């Protein structure tokens, strides 16, 4: 059947729009291609180089005889769990280190959202140096173009971004190829204009969205007049004595914008140094790199309890204890001055048990596939786990790490 002119024009217009949309959404094809991201895929992404420090810091080799059960237990537990690297440091000494499936200590590994804790740390440094005046400043002081989109962006502070309480509209669905977080992860242009940001609700309520960290990175760039990768190199990678070159994924060679919400690739030992910095209250070998009140406001028990386990791009998970006696459970809760809760449960025999959830001072940075930088200040422990989705049939990786850190007295 012969097409009329109007019908032909309509079909041409639809095809043109579809073609334009396809060009704009080529990130979807990349997202689908790398949906099961693995180590072999790292080389397919544009990155910025973070050169090793000219004055590297090395953790000591610890006395593993003090913890004779640690190595055989972890070797057995970690086998076949898709763990790439597992590192346990106590008092600046390595007491356990293992790499699996032919991997080794010189390789760099992806960390995904662990990068968020690095970005927050750079916010702290910019604040200490005066480049950022206050965490209560509106983000539009540094990103004025957002005002053109919506004047309500002026109601959002830097602190709102740090705590994932901005109210910015952005979908965080990792299983949807059209979600905003997937677009940020694969698009070749990650500027605020390209992200087409909008307001979903007033700031204040916590909702985890990676766009908050992306904007934090852009604020640091605006405040310091340096690319985030350059600022990272000068203020963290060099001073922390990173032993090896690392990389940070960027959107494209053209724009050179790092994906601030994710994608720092480094060795396990170098990742551990961020944990050591916080373990020592922001001090590094005599240099107070971070304000002590920043560290306290970020990761102290008080702060984590008050903010529900997430503060300044760090996490804290509650530990668990179980009591058979309700009075003992109540006393435990009382001794922790409101920093613990108790719930009544029934065991398999139908008897009442009292499960107590409390925070024991530990905290961590976390990436989506199960990457961790864990810190337990009480025991002077830092643990790094790098890898893919955790595969153990019984143990959940976060609980395992928290248990190890608590037991290393």
What are the key terms here?
35% helix, alpha+beta, 6-stranded mixed β-sheet, globular, 4-stranded antiparallel β-sheet, 409 residues, 15 helices
Question: What this model shows, in words?
Answer:
The protein has 409 residues and is an alpha+beta fold. Helices cover 35% and strands 19% of the residues. The protein has helices at 5-24, 26-33, 70-78, 115-129, 145-149, 158-162, 180-186, 192-195, 211-224, 228-237, 268-279, 292-299, 301-306, 326-335, 397-407, and strands at 47-50, 60-61, 83-90, 93-99, 109-110, 168-169, 198-199, 246-249, 264-266, 283-284, 287-288, 310-311, 314-315, 319-323, 340-346, 352-358, 363-367, 371-376, 381-387. Strands 2-4-3-19-18-17 form a six-stranded mixed β-sheet, sandwiched between helices. Strands 1-8-9-5 form a four-stranded antiparallel β-sheet, with helices on one face. The protein starts with a helix and ends with a helix. A hairpin with a 4-residue loop joins β18 and β19.
Helix content: 25-40%
Tertiary shape: globular
Low-confidence stretches: 5-24
Query: How would you write the strand order of the largest sheet?
Result: 2-4-3-19-18-17
Secondary structure topology:
Blueprint: H1 5-24, H2 26-33, E1 47-50, E2 60-61, H3 70-78, E3 83-90, E4 93-99, E5 109-110, H4 115-129, H5 145-149, H6 158-162, E6 168-169, H7 180-186, H8 192-195, E7 198-199, H9 211-224, H10 228-237, E8 246-249, E9 264-266, H11 268-279, E10 283-284, E11 287-288, H12 292-299, H13 301-306, E12 310-311, E13 314-315, E14 319-323, H14 326-335, E15 340-346, E16 352-358, E17 363-367, E18 371-376, E19 381-387, H15 397-407
């Amino acid at each position: 059947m012969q097409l009329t002119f109007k019908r032909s024009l309509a079909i041409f217009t639809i095809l043109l729009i579809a073609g334009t949309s396809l060009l704009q959404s080529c990130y979807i094809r990349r997202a689908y291609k790398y949906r099961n991201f693995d180590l072999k895929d790292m080389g397919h992404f544009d990155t910025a180089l973070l050169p090793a420090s000219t004055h590297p810091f090395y953790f000591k080799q610890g006395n593993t005889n003090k913890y004779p059960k640690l190595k055989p237990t972890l070797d057995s537990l970690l086998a076949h769990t898709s763990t790439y690297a597992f590192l346990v440091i106590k008092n600046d000494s390595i007491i356990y280190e293992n790499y699996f499936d032919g991997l080794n200590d010189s390789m760099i590994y992806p960390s995904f959202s662990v990068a968020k804790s690095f970005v927050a740390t750079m916010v702290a440094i910019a604040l200490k140096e005066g480049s950022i005046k206050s965490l209560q400043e509106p983000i539009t002081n540094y990103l004025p173009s957002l005002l053109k989109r919506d004047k309500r962006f002026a109601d959002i502070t830097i602190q709102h971004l740090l705590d994932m309480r901005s109210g910015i509209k952005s979908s965080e669905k990792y299983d949807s190829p059209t979600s905003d977080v997937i677009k940020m992860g694969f698009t070749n242009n990650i500027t605020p204009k390209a992200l087409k940001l909008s307001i979903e609700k007033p700031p204040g309520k916590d909702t985890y969205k990676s766009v908050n960290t992306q904007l934090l990175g852009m604020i640091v760039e605006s405040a310091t007049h340096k690319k985030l990768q350059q600022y990272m190199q000068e203020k963290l990678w060099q001073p922390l004595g990173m032993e090896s070159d690392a990389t940070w994924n960027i959107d494209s060679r053209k724009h050179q914008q790092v994906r601030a919400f994710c994608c720092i690739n480094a060795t396990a030992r170098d990742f551990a140094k961020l944990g050591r910095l916080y373990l020592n209250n922001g001090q590094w070998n005599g240099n107070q790199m971070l304000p002590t009140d920043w560290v306290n406001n970020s990761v102290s028990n008080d702060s984590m309890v008050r903010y529900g386990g997430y503060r300044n791009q760090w996490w804290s998970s509650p530990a668990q204890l179980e009591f058979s006696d309700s009075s003992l459970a109540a006393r435990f809760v009382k001794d922790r001055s409101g920093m613990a809760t108790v719930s009544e449960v029934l065991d398999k025999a139908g008897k009442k048990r009292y499960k107590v959830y409390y925070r024991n001072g530990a905290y961590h940075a976390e990436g989506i596939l199960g990457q961790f930088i864990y810190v337990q200040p009480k025991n002077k422990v830092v643990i790094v786990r790098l890898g893919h989705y955790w595969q153990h049939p019984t143990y959940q990786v976060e609980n395992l790490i928290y248990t190890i850190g608590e037991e290393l007295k």
